[in-house]
Every structure is written in structure tokens, then in C-alpha cells.
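Make up an example, fold above all:
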Amino acid sequence: MIGNNNKKKIIFFTEFSKKIGGGHYARSERLYKILKKKYKCNFYFNKNRKKINDIIKLEYKYYKLLVIYDLKKIYKYNFYKKKEISYICFDNTKKFNQINHININPLNFTKGKYNGPKYYPYPKDLLNIKIKKEAKRVKKILIIQGSTDAYNFRDQILKLTRNFLFIKKIQVYMPGKKNSKKNNIIYYKKFKNISSLLSKIDIAITSTGNLACEIGYLGIPMLYMTKNKVEKTRAKMLTKKNIGKMLSIRNKKNVISELNKLIFDYKYRNYQIKQNLLYFRNDGLKNVLKIINEKYEKI
């Protein structure tokens, strides 16, 4: 069957939940919407291991496959040693030498093939936003912990900084259940276009998931505050590169001091903007699509 069949297909497997977040899903859906215009593609999310294996086995009867895994724990899933099946794995550092696969790690900020923001598939609408001119006054700060706030950390950050930001007359943007405004806090319902929100922001207090790359792409200075162990490691790496700064919610003095510095030290803030632009501003979407296209042609 498959040996005499030259038909090909790309299959995406991804996931999202309160605990996992929405970054895997958003990234894969973005690529899927582009690739389906050119190739035959299927998109699956939140499928268990058995269901994923069943789908691959069924599709393999009729197609040569490029399987794209964008999952938190990829090592739990099967890889078939078939020359007609290739794999691309996002956010995976393990090597599976017995199969035809490559890893793409846009959130791995160490040196390595296909590592770093150069391989982050930025949203197309983000690429069209012009970098804001260097503003001497900070007016708007974003407090965000990914799309789901898995550790319920966002409100703790707000509680820590609210009085300070209120005194400085700075608007705070945060995700909420509905669009509303209370004093200087602006709650927004989930944005269909996150880029339109980021275009308004002067400083972000964030974790170091996918959204950090998008914030950094626009040069927005970042303070990293997170409870996730993996994200803490990333935050330390970025801090060492002088790209933003990792802070602990337990040290209010340091948090307020760094906010003061970013808000009132014009030169320091613009240095952070330039550092972000140098590191994050890459055509990662083009680079990832090139890898996928080349992999597809070889199956």
C-alpha cells in the first residue's frame, strides 16, 4: 500500500489546558493555518497516547507522513521507525537516533541547532507592527502569566505592585473574565489578536513562555516572575544575557526598585529595548516554515 503511494500529509498533535497553558496550541495552530493552504494537513489536540498512535497507524496506510509534535512531554509518545514517516518535535531536547526526526526549540536559550528565538514562529500580524519610538514616559504595564495563568500567580504580582503603580499613575493591563476597568487596572477578555494589545504596552511583567518571545520581538522591556521551574531556568539565562531581569515575588524591595529603574531611567529602559530587539527580532516564522517544507519534501 504505502510503498507504492506518493501521497503525503502533515499531521499536527498539540494540547492545551489550564496547567499546560495555551502556547503549544497557539503555535501549532498558527503553522497549520499557513501550511494547509499548500499541503494536505490534519490538526489534532488533547489526544491521548493511544488515540495518537491509532491516528498515525491509520494515516500511514494511505500517506507518507510528516508528524509534528508540539506537546509538553513528547518522550511519552511513540515514534515509528519507518522511512515514510518523519517527525518534527517542538520543545524537545531528547534525541531519538533510531528515527527520522529533528527538534526545534525556540524557548531553549542555549546554543544549539534550531534553538532560540530565531526559530520562534511569530504571528504574522506581529511582524507588521512598527516599533514604537523611544518614549520618555511609561504609561502602560502588562502583567501576564501566559494565556492560562497556570499557577494563579498574576493576582499575587498585582497585589505586590498595585500601590506603587497606582501612585505613579500607570495603567495596568491584565487578562480577565470580561473587559472592565477599575481605577488604573484594565482587565481584558482573551485577545484574538494579542499583537494589538502588545502594541500599547511599555513594560511587561511576565513568565518566560511563548509570549515572552512575542513581547521581546517588539522590544518591550520585561521583568520575569514565574513559579515554573523550567521558566525560572530560562529567566536566569535571559538575565545573564542582560535581556530583562528575573525577580522573586518574595523580594518586594527588588521588584519596586527595578520597576522604578525601568520607569524613570530613560537610558536604562532604552538599553533594554535595544537588547530585546537584537535578541528576539528574527524572522522565525520564515525559518520554521523552511524547515518544515524541506522535511516534507524528503519524505
